[in-house]
Amino acid sequence: MDTDDPLAPYLRFDKRFFNFSLRDLSRPGAMEEVERYAVQYRELLDSNSEALRSALRGECALREIGRELYMKLDNIQGADIKASGSLSREIGIADILLPSQQSTPLASESPLKRGRIVNHLGRMLVPEKYSRWYSLAAQVLDVEPERMLVPAFARAFVEYSLSHSAECKFAADVLGGEGQGVFMAWTLLPYIHQHMIQRGYAPGDAMRAQMSWAGSAQKHAANMSQIASHDFPHARFPHGFYHGPRVALGYDERGPSHLFARLLARTIADRL
Questions:
Q1: Residue 93 forms part of a structural domain
Q2: In this structure, how many other beta carbons lie within 10 angstroms of the beta carbon of residue 109?
Q3: 62-78 average pLDDT score
């Protein structure tokens, strides 16, 4: 991501990564919808450029941006092409490890073996194996999405988990679960990490703080769907926004879902 202007990556967004054109290219009005969302996103970035830059740099409180901007961004972020719940094939631990990491068998208590952690990391590291939508996007658009920060975070998460298994136990128990809070955590973690690094944390210290944050989430009894929920510390966002399951990260990091997540992640990162 551009370091001098934090808004620069988003200003270079590619409207081809808005998903309506992939759902049904022949549907009347499909391309008009793509164009409409692209215009809305461009107008939002242009008309709020200084406020967004100030927030991304940590120069102003997130509440100062104003509820209307959050509402517009929340609406537009739904247009990003995102991972579907349909796996191209089962994701295994070998899919998320580097060749050099596969020589030593993982211990049974390894954090990477907890619950659905491999699937969450697979979505970040090998989206072409995780979701059919990714392969369809590459085929239809004939262009690769801009993906750097999210896979870099996932790689750092894997490396830290391999070398700090005991320390990561409680975080892995939470992050390997399901439910709205866990999904929110995985959506925000890459950008919590980014904010902490920008504030001067060493990568290992930032990851340690994030593991502690995740491990301290409060678990509640299973609801009617038999999925337990978690409340994560400091996850109370400006103007009442909550990063729920419908807000996943799009494949391309210049899209509105990433800008939305980056803003909300600061709420947590500033308190770790």
A1: yes
A2: 11
A3: 83
